[in-house]
Amino acid sequence: MLIEEIQSKVVQSSAILADVRSEIGKVVVGQNEIMDRLLIGILANGHVLIEGVPGLAKTLIISSLAAVFDAQFARIQFTPDLLPADITGTLIYNPKSGEFSAKRGPIFANFILADEVNRAPSKVQSALLEAMQERQVTLGDRTEALPNPFFVMATQNPIEQEGTYPLPEAQVDRFMMKLKIKYPAFDDERIIMNRMVEDKPITLKKVLSPTDITAMREVINLIHMEEKLGDYILHLIQATRHPERYPRISNLKGLIEFGASPRATIYLARAAKAHAYISGRGYVIPDDIKAIARDVLRHRIILSYEAEAEELNSEEIVNRILNEIEVP
Hints:
328 residues, alpha/beta, Rossmann fold, Helicase, Ruva Protein, domain 3, five-stranded parallel beta sheet
């Protein structure tokens, strides 16, 4: 298909996203970058982990998205006493019939908020992450497919460590992106204050349906990405594993214990296409890759003790790589 035809399809298909942003802007103020990243996660068929202190509208954002997309929404509050069956569901025995019937858990929804996911023990975390990866749940002898679309936004609080169970690196890798949500700007917080003081209920219009997401994903698959941009993604990922092969960042060797996995390569390519889509373009440019790379890579680089001793974090390493690897 010609680039012109793809561009026309993208412009026509993505135009409705302006209405999505406008509707959500009625209740969520100032978190435009987070909103765009969540849209990318949904459209690229990935899941998102958000880290931020309480009270920054994380629940409001995902519930508003579900309302605008006319999708089924479920919020799961993770606690230390939660059991896997509390998420996935279980079998219920019927004494009259002598048979077991499946009772589905809250995981059977389109949009899931896994609130404070690091508060639950590893068995519960594994149940969620398995459902995210396989997009199905086994209840007794039956395997039940999760709805399509299926999107998980998990949150974790960076300031509390007591009573938490940090997610293992191999499991965190299943999230397409890890986002860091920040405090609102002064003027944005004034708007928030005025709205909340008035306490007027705001009803969001249903702009899209879950089936529209599937149609959008089909258009995103058509978006053109030149081979040299694919090579650029591969070089970025390789640089996290073998920095000594790149003269400008060879001094990072010894600071990185483990680099990004092949899943990062896939997710970075998918997310770059989705970023081009929400920007109304039928082709990927280097800025699409650079814009999304920090969110895709920040949780996939495991630093060495030497890096920790130098008080470096993974984001600084990613910035070095993005600044030094040659852009095609």
